Automatic annotation (TrEMBL):
Cofactor(s) in the UniProt record: Zn(2+)
Name of protein: Cysteine--tRNA ligase, cytoplasmic
Enzyme class, first EC level, given as a word: ligase
Cellular component GO terms, alphabetical: cytoplasm
Entry EC number(s): 6.1.1.16
Coiled coil: none
Lineage: Eukaryota, Metazoa, Chordata, Craniata, Vertebrata
Length: 772
């Protein structure tokens, strides 16, 4: 029965094959790459592959078999036509996303620009009433402009020394009262320093006036006092005559001058200019319209010629929230007072506001203040509205980033947010708020108002723009940075460390080779360094994605340079040249990163530029210096062979004294060509002095050691009569100065010293016998 079943199956299969062969003889079955449902069903009905006799079915069968997944038990012969196996992409790794510390949430947030890669960023600029300094400044430009004008007018009247003395004494009375009332420790310390300086200058002028000194002496002493007392004198003049200053141009001359100085300082620091720069004085019409918009939306009110922001009305609206940045500061009148500064509303006008938390959008001008026309009368913009109107005019109803100093969070930035969102009727005027940390000097906040600051020009007189940039880069942008000698020394050491690496790589790349010689085989050392290279690149990228952590990024770069230096040193010890292409790749990467950080200017592909005015000094002079170095090397070789010591001395003189004066360093290397490096002259001269100091100290140590070696053991203790009174025949002490026998412990200690001196003295005798 079983055999009959197989026979019937074979018979049915043969009939199917013949019918299918007839059907396929007139049709194409190779169109497309996937079998149809009919193909699959027909294929499943066949028990085995067709014979060669049924050529059409056989071709069809092989085609379908090749497209069908292989089943268990199939042999390679039954697979038919071979095809490519399935492919799947690698899983990959997570890509770092840029995260920024957002003051609106007080945590790091993933940065998502609102419009693709276009980022809208507004940053509060300086209040240009004085020299730009290394930190942020307080808003006092109107008062300073008025005071400067009055002080200038006072000087033009050429007051007599007696008049100056009398005016300073008069001005000192309210100043002393102010000093006594001040409780803030930093402000009090500043006022005390000022008072001490005035006091020191008062005495000599008082003596000169009382003794009727010569005119020149009186004038000189008066000018010293005028310079030391200009701050308290200008305060007094302002209180007496400030209300008489009404010309608007007086208030524009000061910022115009200092803005020019500010731009010069920024250029000197290699700070790129913004796309748009806004000046309050040019945006008064826009500010007036902005204030009108806030009033029209129901969040502002006019009172006695001024316009105030209604904080309660704004905060009660479900769509808004007042003081997003520092909600705990609401109601802090001290913070509000400090934020408004010297021009805040006086106590007698507090009744103009519905709430003490309300702030001025537009202020009715008082005598001695600049003024512009407005629907509410003559006045001037409130402090906070300036930024809102200017930023809103350029960036619109929402920006990606707003930046500024940490101390501007409240009330300035919180009030900016409130009035801007009141104008635009939204809750997202700023998406990310970035606040930079304070800059301090010896632990005290840098501040113009506290007279505790260093100007950028002063800083640049002591250090280069690159060194100042590195100092900032080596610290977190949102944390406090203390400007000190230690901070700058760290930056200088980092610069020197990186620069030395660049110089070494450039020296290696100057070694002659043909095109194919550039591509050397990678051994284990190169593979390991390359692995570290890509790990450090990844770490740098991750650090910068983590709230732009330049400090960690520089540390990773420093580690990469350290690993590269270790590699080069190992190759040098083995008298082998390092891999050029690998070191070049590392140097190119580090250069590009430092260019991104603004620490390198110019277009040179590797390292810090040498020479100014856009000239590539290195490429110009190195060929000539290389010829000189090769010639010197040939001279040294002949001099050593012929034992001409004077020539060797001249070669050393060229290396150690002549070329450093030109900013050139030659490094003689045993078994390798002399290295030629261009380094700034000041650095080389400092290195030379340090080398001389080390040599001098070494000589002193050697001379002291020699002098000690010459002392005979029998004499070493005999001179110490203040300690010992009796000695044995070898000069070893037996009794102290009082005649008491030495203790065993002390005798044991002295014996060790005696034996050590015996050894030194024997070494000295041996050296003299050998003629050394």
């Amino acid at each position: 029965a079983h055999g009959d079943t197989d026979t019937h199956a074979q018979s049915d299969d043969t009939l199917r094959v013949e019918a299918l062969n007839e059907y396929l003889s007139s049709r194409s079955y190779l169109a497309g790459y996937e079998p149809s449902q009919t193909d699959a069903e027909a294929f499943a009905l066949l028990c085995r592959p067709p014979t060669e006799r049924h050529v059409h079915v056989l071709r069809w069968y092989k085609h379908i078999a090749a497209l069908k997944p292989q089943t268990n038990g199939q042999t390679p012969e039954s697979k038919g036509k071979r095809v490519q196996p399935p492919w799947s992409p690698p899983e990959g790794t997570d890509v770092s996303k840029l995260c920024l510390y957002n003051s609106l949430t007080r945590t790091k947030e993933v940065f998502v620009p609102q419009k693709g890669n276009r980022v809208l960023w507004y940053c509060c600029g300086p209040t240009v009433y004085d020299a730009s300094h290394m930190g942020h400044c307080a808003p006092a430009i109107i008062k300073r402009a008025r005071q400067n004008y009055l002080l200038e007018q006072y000087g033009e009247k050429k007051p007599s020394p007696s008049q100056i003395l009398q005016d300073v004494l008069t001005a000192r009375t309210p100043f002393k009262a102010k000093l006594a009332e001040t409780t803030d420790p930093d402000k009090k310390q500043m006022l005390e320093r000022l008072d001490a300086a005035v006091d020191a200058a008062l005495g000599p002028l008082q003596v000169a006036v009382q003794s009727s000194a010569a005119g020149d002496t009186l004038q000189n002493q008066a000018q010293v006092l005028l310079e030391e007392a200009k701050d308290l004198l200008s305060d007094w003049l302002d209180s007496q005559f400030g209300s008489q200053v009404t010309e608007n141009s007086i208030f524009s001359l000061l910022p115009k001058y200092w803005e020019g100085e500010y731009h010069k300082d920024m250029e000197a620091l290699n700070v790129l200019p913004p796309d748009v720069l806004t000046r309050v004085s040019e945006y008064v019409p826009e500010i007036v319209e902005f204030v009108k918009g806030i009033v029209d939306n129901g969040y502002g009110y006019e009172s006695n010629g001024s316009v105030y922001f209604d904080t309660a009305k704004f905060d009660s609206c479900p769509a808004h929230s007042y003081a997003k940045l520092v909600p705990e500061a609401v109601g802090d009148q001290k913070a509000l007072q400090e934020g408004e500064g010297d021009l805040s509303i006086s106590a007698d006008r507090l009744s103009e506001k519905r709430s003490q938390n309300d702030f001025a959008l537009w202020k009715a001008s008082k005598p001695g203040e600049p003024s512009w026309d407005s629907p509410w009368g003559k006045g001037r913009p409130g402090w906070h509205i300036e930024c809102s109107a200017m930023a809103g005019s350029i960036l619109g109803e929402s920006m990606d980033i707003h930046g500024g100093g940490f101390d501007l969070r409240f009330p300035h930035h919180d009030n900016e947010l409130a009035q801007s969102e009141a104008y635009f009727e939204n809750d997202h005027w700023v998406r990310y708020f970035l606040h930079a940390g304070h800059l301090t000097i010896a632990g005290c906040k840098m501040s113009k108002s506290l007279k505790n600051f260093i100007t950028i020009k002063d800083a640049l007189a002591k250090h280069t723009a690159r060194q100042l940039r590195l100092a900032f880069l080596m610290h977190s942008w949102k944390d406090t940075l203390d400007y000190s000698n230690n901070t700058m020394e760290s930056a200088i050491q980092f610069e020197r460390f990186i620069n030395e690496f660049f110089l070494n790589v450039k020296d290696i790349l100057r070694s002659p080779t043909d095109i194919t010689g550039q591509f050397e085989k990678w051994e284990a050392e190169e593979i390991e360094l390359n692995k570290s290279f890509y790990e450090k690149k990844t770490s740098v990228h991750e650090a910068l994605c983590d709230n732009i952590d330049t400090r960690s990024a520089l540390e990773e770069m420093r580690a990469l340079v350290g690993q590269s230096n270790t590699y080069m040193a190992a190759r040098r010890s083995a008298k082998l040249l390092p891999n050029r292409m690998l070191l070049q790749s590392i140097a190119l990467y580090l250069t590009e990163m430092l260019k991104t950080f603004g620490a390198i200017e110019g277009s040179e592909p590797i390292g810090f530029p040498v020479g100014g005015n856009g000239q590539n000094l290195e490429s110009t002079v190195i060929p000539y210096l290389s010829v000189l170095s090769d010639f010197r090397e040939d001279v040294r070789k002949i001099a050593r062979e012929e034992k001409v010591t004077e020539l060797l001395r001249l070669c050393d003189e060229l290396r150690d004294n002549t070329l450093p004066e030109l900013g050139v360093r030659l490094e003689d290397r045993d078994g390798l060509p002399t290295s030629v490096k261009l380094v700034d002259k000041e650095t080389l001269l400092k290195e030379r002095e340090e080398k001389k100091k080390v040599i001098s100290e070494s000589i002193c140590i050697a001379m002291a050691k020699l002098a000690k070696m010459k002392v005979k053991p029998i004499e070493m203790f005999r001179s110490e009569t203040d300690k010992y009174s009796n000695f044995d025949e070898t000069g070893f002490p037996t009794h102290d100065a009082e005649g008491k026998e030495l203790s065993k412990g002390l005798a044991k200690k002295l014996r060790k010293l005696y034996e050590a001196q015996e050894k030194l003295y024997n070494e000295y005798l041996q050296s003299t016998q050998n003629g050394s």
